[in-house]
Amino acid sequence: xxxxxxxxxxxxxxxxxxxxxxxxxxxxxxxxxxxxxxxxxxxxxxxxxxxxxxxxxxxxxxxxxxxxxxxxxxxxxxxxxxxxxxxxxxxxxxxxxxxxxxxxxxxxxxxxxxxxxxxxxxxxxxxxxxxxxxxxxxxxxxxxxxxxxxxxxxxxxxxxxxxxxxxxxxxxxxxxxxxxxxxxxxxxxxxxxxxxxxxxxxxxxxxxxxxxxxxxxxxxxxxxxxxxxxxxxxxxxxxxxxxxxxxxxxxxxxxxxxxxx
Length: 261
Description:
The protein is of the alpha/beta class.
């Protein structure tokens, strides 16, 4: 049974401390689709991810965000997660004193809205950790405390696999990963790929898209999606950078003046 839903963003404007960062983003991710969002520093890529998940620092001043028939902008952060949105952080937080297993068990219970038995959870956890090639001792460590960059990203993927979101937003999940860790991250995303799952992969580089094949590639510049194409667009950016797009569209370099990601 298909339970996937589209994420539809229309004319999204977002400000931080009264400075407008997103200036009218339009985006639709249908079930089963993987969308890549690329762009230079300061374009607003991370702002888009945080705004969709409801970070309080990011003020939506105009526009709509719908997940199926649900108005995302009227939801609290926890309700967005329950509805099926998931954000993999670029810099995951450390939580001392809370083990990975306890955190994930509580997160699964909260998103499901019902208690999963310890036995069932442990069985599911072991299955997903095996997929991600993680040692079982990992589950007993405190959340992200002392983790390497690669371990933090694997833990984000473990969380995604257990929560089974409808739409996952991966904010530069490939950042700082070696090629082996990158393949593991890709394996996690590709294992969910299907009619019940869609994803937005925010990245600077083409290399992750060698392993997570996007259906659509967008270029975000100056707070807007200025160009959309297929996987070949990412290859062209890899070869030529962004200057040709700026020149084509007559855009100024926003990175220096934006001061945000």
